[in-house]
Amino acid sequence: MWDTNGRKIKHFLKRLSWHRKKSSIKNESAIGWYILVLKKEAKFGAEDKWVVRTKEKAEARLKKYGIPMSKVKEVLESRGHKDLSSKIA
What we know:
By secondary structure, this protein is mainly alpha-helical.
């Protein structure tokens, strides 16, 4: 039979310093990805197939994580991309 003395749980809690913060990294990367798509849209145009598909996926990710567009606008302004904030719906 299998080992049932709970070693798996102890091993999981053994080195907490190895674990990373997951939720904050996801939110920051989702916003960063959406900003990158906006930059590509400004460069290649709104009719580019890659831009259209990727923008849909990036918006879905923002919606999944519950990140409002106002937060994206704040990040755009803090990074100095005020011209891209007009492209946000």
